[in-house]
Request: fold
Amino acid sequence: MTQPIQAEIVAPDQLTLEDRRRWRAFQQARPELASPYFHPAFTRIAGEAAPGAEVAILHRGGEVLGYYPFQRRGGRALPLAAPMADYHGVIAAPEVNVPVSALPGLLKSRSAAVTAWVGDRTGLEPVENVAAAAPDGWEAYRADRYAAFGKFFKDKERSRRALAADAGGEVVCAIGRREPELLDQIVAQKSAQLRQSRLHDIFRCGWTVDLLRALMACQDEGDFGASIAVLYAGDRIAALEYALHADDRYHFWFPVYDQALRRSSPGILLTWDTIRLASEMGRSWFDFGSEDGFYKKYFVNAGTTVGAGITRAQAGASPAPRHRLAASARRRWAVVEACETSPLGLARGAAAAAYAAAFKINASRSA
Reply:
């Protein structure tokens, strides 16, 4: 009879060099784990920033089979760096399957929640993440997009010319930037957008900004790291986007743009130019995360189905609620729960989430 999988729970900084090498080998053996979020360097850095960070070392009979990074919030286990991480799952040998339903027992938690689970999705709600695949390089990708949405991209080239004329200077994109002041600008704009949309400000808790700074400062993990792409219109910054990258993967993460220039679509121009420049550097998969966002459909030609839901000890996995308002309320609370670690922060977040939910319900009734 096969022995059950067991877990040893350790702090991320307790992982040995051999653990990290084994982890990387597991990741490279499974194409579905190619995202930078599965890189051992992400766990090392996030483990220093995220409160309650831990790693489950999965083993059977003394043989290490895989790893699962997570963070504790009360009696619940959440993916490490939630709500920031767009992918999560068990990093294990190809023949090893660990379902979400096994997590509470392995992690010694009352429940475990996932929003973008890569792996066995039994009992979970399927969620589509989308990407731009350019395996044959920029010119082939460009031709593919023009064949699908030629009118759209020709219109954006007119927008580029209009933006240059308005700015009195050339429209230029630069990628791989790491100046702290650029990150400060992204955080300030994104925080303002979240508050204006009555969403929880994920940067107010502090540790999430610390994570972005640390990822951007990482220079010793080969091709892994984070950086910022900038679109300049003359001397003016028209758009910015913070991205995570490793190997051939480039993950768009936090985009912002100058609202005064929105008629010229600076964010879309930045995305287009970023794909061009990064593909010329060897990137071939540009991940946008969730399919939310009208502009993404013009860029994406590939995707990944992930899972969302909650699994409770002795109760199995249950999908995220399907009803629109219930699902919205659950997502709002999940963000608060993941970000905030103090009673005051949780109380403030819960009150704001309740107010936003009530506002949405009233708006839907009056529509």
Notes: Residues 138-167 form the longest helix (30 residues). The two ends are 60 Å apart (CA to CA). Residues 135-283 form a domain with the Aminopeptidase fold (CATH 3.40.630.30).
